[in-house]
Amino acid sequence: MPANLPPQYYKAEEEFKNAKTLPEKIAALEVMMAIMPHHKGTDKLRAELNRKMSLLKEQMEAGAKGKHVSLFSVERQGAAQVLLIGPPNTGKSSILAHLTAATPLIADYPYTTTQPEVGMMPYEDIQIQIVDLPPMGGDVRKLPFYNLLRTADALILVADATGAPDADVRLVMEELAAGKVYAAPADGADLPIGSVVKKMLIILNRCDMADVSAAQRTVRAAVSETIRVIPASALHGTGLEELRHELYRVADIIRVYTKMPGKKPDLHAPYVLPAGSTVMELARSIHRDFAEGLRYARIWGSGKFDGQRVHHDHVLEDRDVIELHL
After folding, report:
1. 248: which residues sit within 8 A by CB, 6+ positions away?
2. What is the pLDDT along the chain (326 residues), one digit of tens a residue?
3. I need a labelling partner for 177 at 20 to 30 A (CA). Which of 30, 59, 156, 195 fits?
4. 229 with 97, same domain?
5. Computed over its alpha carbons, how large is the radius of gyration of the chain?
6. Given 206, 221, 251, which residue is the final one in a domain?
7. pTM for the whole thing?
8. Is residue 55 domain-shared with residue 142, that is, in the same domain?
């Protein structure tokens, strides 16, 4: 089967060939892999690009040995990694403390957060990693911060409803654009080579002390209508339960449970996959042998009926139960 690669892929490939530094090569590879279609014709090419990516990252790590470890390096944990971003004194640390068991320093003065603060947010049967980043203000151009923004699953922009929330939002969007990071939806054809598009949610904090409707209108004038804006109060806990559900939604993931023939499903340890994943992608995530030997699957959930036999390309939905037959 031919690869049928789009013109944007070849532009990114040219960027990769001309890249002089490891970070530039990694950024171009990320774009190539994001643009590449998912079908049998690209399996071999995708495997080759994955191999190149692994080698480049090994070189980066080898070059970093013996040097100062970046404060902006955060090991991914849980089902997804979501970043809290925003200007100083918008209440990001308070939101982190409410959603997780983390105990960040919280104070009235700006720039209290000087390095990433990490917490794990329980959501039903999974954990989502929340990372509170230091306030925006130019550091996005530094490679480690830039890479963290590029690799996270979603961004949560926190604005102050009592101040000028539209200015907060515009400041953050400008800083993100400086690192070639854009909020979805974004027209990929108009973005510079090496750009990434991230899911985003906006939290209007301190809504208990402001005219929420007015604050929402000003923010709406600054961003796309498709970006969800949630009023909240970290001080009183208002809106934070809704926020938990929205964080799961914006992470764009699904939970899939497996079962053995004739046995009950294991509903305690779901496989977490990107939304839109197929039966074959589930099999690959379990083990390569499962993907190579997969004959068919039976599904409980998104099938027309329980136990329906489905093909490899069946798109899974949240909370599906799958029985793989090898």
Report:
1. 123, 128
2. 566 787 778 888 888 888 777 777 887 788 788 777 777 778 888 888 888 888 887 776 665 444 443 445 688 889 999 999 999 888 888 898 889 888 766 655 455 566 788 899 999 989 999 999 888 875 555 545 677 888 899 999 999 999 889 999 999 998 888 888 888 877 666 778 778 889 999 999 999 898 988 988 999 888 888 899 999 998 888 888 889 999 999 999 999 999 888 888 888 889 999 999 999 898 888 887 777 888 888 999 877 778 889 888 899 999 999 988 88
3. 59
4. yes
5. 21
6. 251
7. 0.73
8. no
